[in-house]
Amino acid sequence: MNAFRLTSFAAATGALLITATSLAQTPAKAAQTHETVAPAAQAAAGAEVLAFERELAAALVRGDVAYMEKAIAQDFVMVHGDDWTHGDPPRLADDRTSFMKRVSGKIYEAVDVDVQAVEMHGDVAITYGHYVGHIPGSPEGRRWFGVWYEKVYARRDGRWVYLSHRTVDGANYGNDRASVSLH
Fold first, then answer.
1. In terms of residue numbers, what domain contains 141?
2. Rounded Cα distance, 34 and 116, in Å
3. Which SS3 state, helix, strand or coil, does residue 78 take?
4. End-to-end alpha-carbon separation of the chain, Å?
5. What is the pLDDT of residues 14-26, one digit of tens each?
6. Alpha-carbon span 102 to 94, nearest angstrom
7. Domain holding 153: CATH number?
8. Is 166 helix (H, G, I), strand (E, B) or coil?
9. DSSP assigned state of 57
10. pLDDT of residue 40
11. Separation of alpha carbons 58 and 108, rounded Å
12. Between 96-105 and 43-62, two packed helices, what is the crossing angle to 10 degrees?
C-alpha cells in the first residue's frame, strides 16, 4: 500500500513538473514595434538619446574628432562582430584611442540608422537597433554592411556620453546598400 501511494505521488509530481516546464517554455508573443521603454517622464530623455545616437553616426562619417572627443567616454569600448554571442572571442574590440583613429581616418562614407529604440534607466540609456554602413576602402563584397547593435549611454555633467557598443548580429555584408538594408 505504501509503495502504491509513493508511486502515485511520484506520478502526480512528475505530471505537474512536466506541465510547469512546458508552460515556462511557451514563447511570449514578440513585440512588433520599436518604442521607447520608459516611464512617461523619461520619454523626452529617450528621444534626446536617440537623436544623440544619430548625431554620433553623422559625426563619425564627417570625421568630426572634436565632437567625438566630447561625446565618447574615457572608458569607451566597442565590440565588433557577433562572434562573442556564440562564445567565441570578439572579432575586434576598440577602446577610445583605437576608435578615435577610425574617426580621424574618416573611413566611413555612411552610417545610417534604420531601426532604433531606447530603454531608459534614469541617467543610463540602452539603445538597440540596426544600421547600414559603407566603408569604400574595404574589399569588394564587404564595403556595405548591416549591423544589429546594443549601445549604452550615461548622462554625465548634464550631457549624454557614449559608453559602449556591442554588435549583436552581424556584420552582414553585401555589394550595395539594398542588399544589407532592412527597408
1. 40-180
2. 7
3. strand
4. 68
5. 443 444 444 444 4
6. 10
7. 3.10.450.50
8. strand
9. H
10. 66
11. 10
12. 60
Q: Which three cell numbers stand for residue 102?
A: 577610425
For the chain, what is the domain count?
A: 1
Closest CA to 165 of 180, 181, 183, 147: 147
Closest Cα to residue 60, out of 1, 96, 111, 114? Answer: 111
> How many residues does this entry show for the chain?
183
Residue type, 102: R
Residue 145 lies in a domain: yes
- CA-CA distances (angstroms) from residue 35 to 30, 39, 69? 13, 12, 29
| Nearest CA-CA partner of 112 in 125, 130, 127 | 130
Peptide bond into 171 cis (omega under 30): yes
Q: What is the pLDDT along the chain (183 residues), one digit of tens a residue?
A: 444 444 444 444 444 344 444 444 444 443 334 455 556 667 889 999 999 999 999 999 999 999 999 999 999 999 999 999 999 999 899 999 999 999 999 999 999 999 999 999 999 999 999 999 999 999 999 999 999 999 999 999 999 999 999 999 999 999 999 999 986
Q: Is residue 76 part of a domain?
A: yes
